[in-house]
Amino acid sequence: MRTSSLRNAVRLALMAMAFLAKWAAPTFSMAPTPSNDMEMSFGKHRGRLISEIVEDDPSYLQWLLGQAEAAGPQLEASAHPYVFPVDLDDGRLLEISWRKGDDHEKVAHDFVTEKGLPEDNIPEIISFLKDIEQNRVGYRVDEPVSEAPSRQLLEVAEFVWKHFPQVEGLVSFGKYRGRALSQVVQDDPEYCSWILETAAKADSSDQLRQAAKRIQENHPDLVTQLEQWPENADGQTTVTCGKHKGKSFQAVLQEDTDYVCWLIDNIGDEARSKNLRALISFARRHADCRGGVEGKQAANWIQENHPDLVTQDTDYVCWLIDNIGDATGGVEVKQV
């Protein structure tokens, strides 16, 4: 490799830099971006401020953060951001590539060894590598840009982590969309139980898995409580299903023995809800189920008319119990 060849390569690099600058010139909005805000430069929200996306579509940013966590190490380990042609005087056109941060001397030595060039070219090659990195010119040829992990994505993720850390703590789906997950943990542990159980399934969404991961990492006491619900529930545990929702197990036992006895007799261990299983477990230890005419009539009606509900839809069973009354000549549905 001669000096003229290196100069040709540098000229090609400068031409590439000029082309990239023209092709990827940023578009500027009329209003200045706040110092604590950033404009998205890719994806479906391209051109919008991060603060707007936090309000309108936090699930997208949560997805982006997850992608950044997964792609960061891969990006640093596998990217070849500097790839340039080298035109030799003998007519050969070679290609040199390296990663930012690589040892320039080793890159140069490996290059001349692989291509069969004299080692006295190594100093010129090292100088060439340094010049390219100082001009921050580089492009990928080993994978399509659309499929490669994006450094822009990492930059946005770092910005969100720094200025909008609350995004990770928001629920991005379901009836609590937009609420803080920590508040949902306090208000509706049964819903959190559903998140954990559903996220464990193979076909669960990324949003559910991320929410489950945050519950497990930030609320281990709740996870332990949910795991122990059926066995260790006490009278102060709150009911989250049916007409007694919001009451303690002890209050339900005192106010409506027929109800808990019906749960024991007709749902038992088949309950899908952990909270319902916990209530049944508590009732088995403390309820006196020797009486209860009205509750047994309701149970008989459900078994005769909807036998599949007992094991397949316990929430609907709760609704039926709420809306079934004892009438002369049998049981009638009061609401459809």
Tags for this model:
336 residues, mainly alpha, Ubiquitin-like (UB roll), two-stranded antiparallel sheet, 16 helices, disordered C terminus
Q: Would you write up a description of this structure?
A:
With 336 residues, this protein is mainly alpha-helical. The chain has three domains: 3-161, PFU (PLAA family ubiquitin binding), C-terminal domain (Ubiquitin-like (UB roll), Roll); 170-230, no CATH class; 233-333, no CATH class. 56% of the residues lie in helices and 6% in strands. It is built from 16 helices and four strands. It has helices at residues 3-23, 50-56, 58-78, 104-115, 122-134, 151-163, 181-187, 189-199, 206-218, 220-232, 249-255, 257-266, 274-286, 293-305, 309-312, 314-323, and strands at 82-87, 93-98, 324-327, 330-333. The strands form two sheets. Strands 1-2 form a two-stranded antiparallel sheet. It has a two-stranded antiparallel sheet with strand order 3-4. A hairpin with a 2-residue loop joins β3 and β4 (330-333). The longest helix has 21 residues, at 3-23. It is elongated. The protein starts with a helix and ends with a strand. The model is unreliable at 14-32, 137-149, 291-295 and 324-336 (pLDDT under 50). Keywords: Signal. It comes from Symbiodinium necroappetens. Residues 40-67, 172-197 form the Exodeoxyribonuclease X-like C-terminal domain. It holds the Pfam family ExoX-like_C. This is BPT2 protein.
